[in-house]
Amino acid sequence: MKHYKEFDFIWSSPPCPTHSQLGRLRVLSDSKITGAYLSEAKYPDMKLYEEIILLKHFFKGKWCVENVIAYYEPLIKPTEIQRHHFWTNFPVHIINLPADNIDKGIPKERSGKKSLDMI
What we know:
- With 119 residues, the protein is of the alpha+beta class.
- It has one domain (4-90).
- The chain is built from two helices and four strands, in the order βααβββ.
- It has helices spanning 21-34, 47-58, and strands spanning 9-12, 62-68, 79-81, 84-88.
- A four-stranded mixed β-sheet has the order 1-2-4-3, covered by helices on one side.
- Strand 3 (79-81) and strand 4 form a beta hairpin.
- The longest helix is centred in the N-terminal third of the chain and has 14 residues, at 21-34.
- The protein is globular, with a radius of gyration of 17 Å.
């Protein structure tokens, strides 16, 4: 907060465990079998939306906030690319990649292509 005005571009990726589908499944999955929970249910960390709102209304430069696709309908509409949500103040061009390439590094189809257009 003290230094955000000093930058011309901000990329933010707040912690995602309380928003993720996996986090929700950890709470629900084992309870069906044993009656116990692998994890306790937690309130979603709303710092994600605090950052988006602050940047949208007060930051003069370009910005992007990234997070996993949430288990709930996002409170502020994002752009969705594969397993992630992106909130920005500039257009994001979607590169369609097969889902099976997600964990295999940079696929050939993507090398040399830009996914963010900051012009």
